[in-house]
Each structure stands twice: as C-alpha cells, then as structure tokens.
Amino acid sequence: MLHSILRRNSSTFKILNDIPTDKSVPQFTVGRKNGFLPWGTPLDRLPEPFKIIDGILDQAPFYKRDGTPGLLATGSFGEYVREKLPLLDVSNIKDSDLLFALYRDYTFLTSQYLLEPCHLYYLATKFKDYGLGRSRLPANIAVPLVNLAKQLGAKPFMEYSCYASYNWQKIDPTGNLDPQNIRLIRNLEGSQHETGFAAVHIAMVQHSGELVSNAQDVLDTAEKQDREEFDICLQKLFMTIKTINVKMDAMWEYSSPKAFNNIRSFMMGIKNQPMFPKGVVYEGVSEEPTFYRGVSAANDSIIPTIDNLLELTDNMPDNSFTAMLRDFRTYRPVNHKDYLSYVEEKAKSIGVQEFATQDSNSTVLYQALLDQVSEFRERHWRFTKSYILKQSKHPRATGGTPIITWLPNQLATVMQAIVNIQSFIKEEKLSHENKLLYLELTKKADTQLRILNREVEELKKEYPGQDIDFQEVDGNMAKIMEIQSHTTFRQAKSAVA
C-alpha cells in the first residue's frame, strides 16, 4: 500500500521514499528518488480510443521526425484537427500514466492550434511580430482538456511538466537522463534544437531527487538544532545545486540561440500577450474568455524549493513582479504546489535562516547556497539575453512577464541577500576555507548587482513598458501594446507559402 512507501515528514505533507506500484498514485508525487520527475516512465503511445491523438501529434510539428514539413509548416493543422479529431470521453481515468499523458497531449494540441497563425506570421514578417492567435479553442480539444485538468488539479493549458518533465524517452533504457540519451515524445517545432532545449531541462530535473532528500535533511537537522549535521546537509545541498547548474550550461551545446525563437512561438501563453487581446474562449466549456500563462522554466520546482528553504521568498520585494512569481508557482502539478508550501511553512516555523546565522561557518555555507541560486538565475538571465533579446524584440516572455525586468527582480534579490548576510559573519570565527569563500562570495555579489542594475536600465530604453509598476491586464491588450489587429491568418499563410 501507499502508506508503506511514504514517510511522514510533517502533519501536512508526505514524501515518497520508494517508487510505488499502485498506478493510481499521481505521477508527480514528490519523492526522494524521483524528485520532481514523474515516478513512472512517461507514456509515449496512447491506447484505444485515443490513438488518433498519436497520429495527429506525429503529423503536427513544423518538422516531422523524418525531416519533412508537418501540418504546422503548411498552415493546415487547425483545419485538420477541427475535422479529424472526435470529441473523446476522458472522464474517470484511474491510471495515472494515461491521465497525465492525455493531459500532456491535449495541451500540445491546444498550443499548436492557438499559436499556428502566430508562428506563420512571425516567419512571414521575418521575426518581427506574431500577429494574432486564434481566439477560440474548439470543443473537441477544450472539453477533454478542461476535464483532464480538473482531475489533476491543473491549469487547462500547457505547463512545464507537460513540455519537459513528462515528455521524454530514454534512447538507452539503462542510461541516465542526459541530453544525448533523451528523445522527446511530443514536439512543438520538431528540430534537434527543440530536443536539445527540452533535454537539458530534463537532465537538470533528474537530480531533483537528491535535492528533495537534501532539503528535507536540512529541515530535519535544523529542527533538531544539530549544528554538525546541519552543516553537512548544507554542503550536500550545495553540491546538488552546483551539479544542476553545470547541467544547465549544456544548453549552449545542445540548442542554438538563433533557432530558439522558432520553438518559442508555440510556447507562448494567452495571459498578457498581444496575440490574444481578448483571451481565448474554450468552446463547449464557457463563452467567458480564458487567460493562462505559457510554458516557462519558472514552472519548475527546483529553485522555488531552495527559495523557500532559505526563506528567500520572504525577501522578495513587494511589487507586481513578485506577485507574478507567486502566480507562476501555481502552474505546476498539485503535489509540487503542496510541497513548496510545506517547505516554505516548515522553514519559517523552524527558523532555518535564524539557525544558520547563529554560527558564522554555517552562515557562510548558507551564503554559498544563495550564491548557487544566484548562479542559476544569472544563467537564466544570460540565456534570455542570447536566446531571446538578440533574436527578437517581442517585449513579453512566454509566461507574459516583462522580458527585461522580471528575471532581474529575482536575481537582484538573491544578490542583495548574499551581500546582506555578511552582517552575521565574524571573520575570526571562520575556518580558513570558509573565510576565503566568504570574501569571494560577498565581493562577487556586490559587483554583479551593480552590473545588473546598469544593464537593466540600458535595456529598458529599448523595450517600453518594462518598469516595476507594470500591471498585468486580462483583455484589452490592444490599449497597452500596438498590435497588427487587422492582419489575417490567410495573409500570413500565403506569405509563407
């Protein structure tokens, strides 16, 4: 039974210790072995009566697996789906593999259907604009998707877990989840650069089991006030995050910056995007327009876990950007959301930061963890500059956030925390090794913070509407951003042809 493989870590949350055999256990139950990956192997082919979805999604990508143009390349995906896809019954599915596989696949159908005209227009205008997306999602996609999302407690739109965490096969089943050993089950665009982009993220998440274990051990040792074990656990957690950061650097090798915007078109959301000024109506569900964020690495649970464990989330500035960060953290599997809340509440009740700062050597280890969070966010910012800003002038990220100022909001916060924490450190109490580390980290963060602030101010001159008082608006986006509202899908399609 499930009870035998779960360990009670508090009165409100349980973590998997082993891989379950009960197929009803939700795939994204957080565990010491699987971390934030599904506990099972993602289902790559659907059973009857859902096999027709396999066929459609195999034909959909801009580049199919054999390299030939797919339905999205010819602008025929929308019509094909409207005509060929029946309204399938997805209610009362008990198998967690099938439930999440269907959710994944219907979110792919949704993004490809809504954003097909945007990508064609983007190509036709030579990467200058996305035009308008489709404003209505047909019932044969919308009704099953909403049903599946309700069963999972998820948003009826593509999340990071659909695009990456539950979208892989191992080429060699005995190997690790490293980029060279990953094949995607579903593709949006279909190039090797898309595979590389998603594979690097999956390779990072494969270490999340270690991260969950180490984070839990930090909480446990802090609660016991065991200084020696606490420091050991901080060091182990540091090595895990450092490994994840090294994996992140592989992006440069596996996915080209110049190719990324071809993938990005289909990752856009509805919320706060000029392509969807009035949102999207889900036919057969409601005539009220919907607004959802697009796929973003901000949906991943790695850094939010460390933010909450180190009580860094509470240090985020009280502004609209931090409100967006909180909103992003609802776009993930329900068990991940519960886990993040548990870590945040547990760390506060124990006083992880307070316990760390009672000892100078512990504080330096805590500071080193903050530095690894800064490294992660700095890499993300560097990718944004190379993969997006150098290739496109679209002012919104896939999740609808301001492209220039949202990430630096979090990055500047952690850099400032590294500088501020030095007030708790007495150099004469430090070991020789920790003293050198402390001096290096404090100087580094102070310098990086000044560079970041100058950089953001310069970039804001090129991208209007990026300031800290930026407010998200659902609907009427035409009043906020200039859009090509009279451009038709037919014009974009013929321009590409």
Which terms summarize this structure?
single chain, 497 residues, mainly alpha, three-stranded mixed sheet, two-stranded antiparallel sheet, 52% helix, disordered N terminus, disordered C terminus
How does the SSE layout of this entry go?
Layout: E1 6-8, E2 14-16, H1 51-59, H2 71-74, H3 77-84, H4 96-124, E3 136-137, H5 139-152, H6 160-165, E4 168-170, E5 182-184, H7 192-205, H8 208-224, H9 227-248, H10 251-254, H11 257-264, E6 280-282, E7 289-290, H12 302-309, H13 320-328, H14 334-350, H15 352-356, H16 360-389, H17 406-420, H18 432-460, H19 489-496
Parallel strand pairs: 3-6
Antiparallel strand pairs: 1-2, 4-5, 6-7
Helix pairs in contact: 4-5, 4-19, 7-9, 8-9, 8-12, 8-14, 9-16, 11-16, 12-14, 16-17, 16-18, 17-18
Could you explain how this protein is built, in words?
The protein has 497 residues and is mainly alpha-helical. The chain is built from 19 helices and 7 strands. It has helices at 51-59, 71-74, 77-84, 96-124, 139-152, 160-165, 192-205, 208-224, 227-248, 251-254, 257-264, 302-309, 320-328, 334-350, 352-356, 360-389, 406-420, 432-460, 489-496; strands at 6-8, 14-16, 136-137, 168-170, 182-184, 280-282, 289-290. Strands 3-6-7 form a 3-stranded mixed beta sheet. A hairpin with a 6-residue loop joins strand 6 and strand 7 (289-290). Helix 9 runs parallel beside helix 16 and helix 12 runs parallel beside helix 14 (334-350). The longest helix has 30 residues, at 360-389. It is globular and about 75 Å long. The termini are far apart.
